[in-house]
Structures are given as structure tokens and as C-alpha cells.
Design brief:
Order of helices and strands: HHHHHEHEEH
Helix content: 55-70%
Radius of gyration: 33 Å
Structural class: mainly alpha
Number of strands: 3
Strand order of the largest sheet: 1-3-2
């Protein structure tokens, strides 16, 4: 029984090769060549063609099902990402004055990343709204690299007329003693 299961698990290439060999034998050998063989050869080739053809069709359908499942899962993930981005973009409409000033300064200066204190109250709310993330890069006890995620940055650049900053200072720094 185990040998039959191993046969059923054969790779697609082998089964398809057997199927094609059987088709070639059935369609391209003349009747006189078949008559020269023992009587069981022709039915055996037909049976082998049916079995290998069935396995080939099963493998093709399985491959198609696997690919469609993967495609549907990726599509579902893309839709979830889009919904998450839309909810993040909705936060752009509810920015406080400090949050707006920080983002406007970054957009005006075309600066997607910056360094700031690890514990900066102005930045914490932007982190919670997913409008900023901690970036990879140099950090120490006092300063951390922050950046605007690429999708949010593209939206901010698209709406750059709404985010204008005329000051010279860095609005993400506070003058707190910590």
C-alpha cells in the first residue's frame, strides 16, 4: 500500500512524462507495430495513460488551487493594509497644533526622518497614530531616529499645500530639562 502512496506523490514532471510517453506510443505507433507485441501491451499502455493522465490533471488542479489560494490571501492582506492606511490617513484630519507643526516642518524641509529625544510628549502621540515610527539607525540614551512611514510620507507630499511651516526651529524639540 505504501508503494502506491509513493507513486501517487510522484513529482509532476515524472507523471507528465509518463503520460506523454503513453500518448506518443498510442497515437504514433502503427497497428502493425502493436500486433508485433504481446497482446497485453496495448491495454497496459492505455491503462498507464489513463492513470498518469489522471495524476497529471490532479497535479495541475492542485497547483492551480494552491496558486489561487495564495493570490486570495495576498489580496486579503493588501485590502487589510489599505484599510489600515486609510485609518492612519484619517488621523491627518485630527492633528493637534503641535502635531501639525511637526509634520508641516518635515514636509516643508523635505525631511522624512529626524532625531529627537526618546521621551518627547509631542512625538508620542504621532507614534500612537502611526504617523511616525522609530527608524533604524544611530540612537543613544538621549536621542532616537524617527521617520515618517513611506505611505504616510507619500500622502503628506501629495497634500503638501496643506502642510506649510515658516519657522526656523525644530518643533519636535521641547525645552524641558529632561
Amino acid at each position: 500500500m505504501g508503494d502506491w502512496l509513493k507513486f501517487l506523490e510522484m513529482k509532476y514532471n515524472v507523471v507528465a512524462g509518463v503520460f506523454l510517453a503513453c500518448l506518443i506510443a498510442l497515437f504514433f505507433l502503427s497497428p502493425s507495430e502493436f500486433r508485433a507485441q504481446p497482446g497485453w501491451v496495448h491495454p497496459a499502455i492505455e491503462l498507464l495513460a489513463v492513470l498518469s493522465g489522471s495524476l497529471t490533471a490532479m497535479n495541475i488542479f492542485k497547483f492551480g488551487a494552491d496558486k489561487s489560494k495564495t493570490w486570495l490571501q495576498n489580496r486579503s492582506l493588501d485590502q487589510k493594509k489599505q484599510l489600515a492606511l486609510q485609518s492612519t490617513f484619517a488621523y491627518l484630519e485630527t492633528l493637534s497644533e503641535e502635531e501639525y507643526t511637526i509634520l508641516a516642518c518635515l514636509v516643508t524641509r523635505n525631511q522624512q526622518s529626524f532625531n529627537a529625544k526618546l521621551v518627547e510628549p509631542k512625538i508620542q502621540t504621532l507614534l500612537q497614530k502611526r504617523l511616525l515610527i522609530r527608524a533604524n539607525g544611530a540612537a543613544n540614551f538621549f536621542n532616537v531616529a524617527y521617520m515618517v512611514p513611506d505611505a504616510v510620507w507619500a500622502e503628506l507630499k501629495r497634500r503638501s499645500e496643506e502642510f506649510v511651516y515658516a519657522g526656523n526651529d525644530k518643533p519636535w524639540t521641547s525645552h524641558a530639562p529632561y
